[in-house]
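TL;DR need structure tokens for one chain.
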Amino acid sequence: MSLSAPSRRTAACLALGLFGGLAFGPRLVGQPPAPAPVPVPEPLGGPALPRDWNSYAPVVKRVAPAVVVIEGKAKARPKLDDPDPGFGSGVLIHPAGIVLTCNHLVADTATVEVTLADGRKFPSKEIRRDPKTDLAIVRIEDKAPFPFVEFGDSVAMEPGDRVLAFGAPFGLTGSVTQGIVSATRRQNLNVNVVEDFIQFDAAVNPGNSGGPLVSTEGKLIGLSSAIKTRSGGFQGVGLAVSGKLADAVAADLIRNGAVKRPSIGVQVREMDDDAAARNKLKPGGGVVITEIVAKSPGEAANLGVGDVVTAFNGQVVTTPREMLKAVVAAPAGQPAAVVVVRNGQAFQTRVTPVEQLDVAPAAGAAPGPPLQAAMSLDALGLTVAEVTADAAAKLGLPKGARAVQVATVTPNGLAAQSGVGRGMLVIQVDRFPVATPDDFRTAVERASREKGAVLHVLRPSGGVDFVVLRGQ
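>> reply
TL;DR here they are.
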């Protein structure tokens, strides 16, 4: 293609300008300074994050020492690929050796072996169970305080919050997985009688049961209890008993050996065909009362053996499980409506549940004494005084925190020998807050002479410590 005269001139001018710029540009005088270089934008995602943000290792290091393996001593050790390993996990929630775990791991054994992360093994027969929430506690003993995990605020957890699940899936101890909270306040799943689950997607498998679910702050916000699956393995839906429910149940088990719940003092069974025909009902249309405890709310409401209950407190009941859930959900001390069928005639009455210790049916007997027996405060050689709110602020306690202060310590007395010093602030005794001298006395006298009471203290120097106060 040939260029016209104007085009040739244009091309020549462009070429000359480029050549001239290259040949003569560096010799020009008074040339303005070059513009500052345009900053290159950071890649998507921003600058590299510090280790605390892109690794969970700091949290794992804090929590892992308190994670344990729970195994019935009479059970054979399983193979690694066994889908039902016969053992599970637990977590220490108190330096005195209180392990929180799942009831289904300890329900059929009187002795368990607890293995710590450092390999130490502790047999224990001190087991307290609550089948209705699938929770249990086990007490182990040692001279030194145990590592433990504090409860966090499970109510504040929201879908999308990151969580870590610890345990021993298929016998692989020291395992940890990460995920997020998928949902909270899961109920009516027919897993437990009393339900308050956190749903999460961190991978958990057989052997994880009883292991802690923790926040990224390393606080206990749930206890892995079950998975929803069609394959038998993990499919992305894990269920953990919420920390709020677990904390309350553990406190009752420690204090009383059982959990206090509403009760009406009746036992029921499923309605068979004969009972249905006799009462002109369809099979599965209610539950049949088989036993009534003397002087119970059920007796006071004129319920009788053989009566069929079809609804309780507005809830239709067709199975004993539904009846039990309706009763324990009813407020104690408030009348609840009961729809009853007797000899084919339906009527409604009212029964007032009372709160009483819920003895674990799996144990077959009373739960036994609390984990702590009596210890006399007077023989320990110390006195404590209440700390006012103003004094607490001056002493460095967090806002709203309460404590008692050690006022006197008898030289060479038992308290002094245990390491208790004058001026110490006692915040908790065996994990129970103490705000008054009466609180302190009650907590200490509830403790065992042999095992002692674990005092959570703030030393005058400002250091936080645990002191085991033992009697004779």
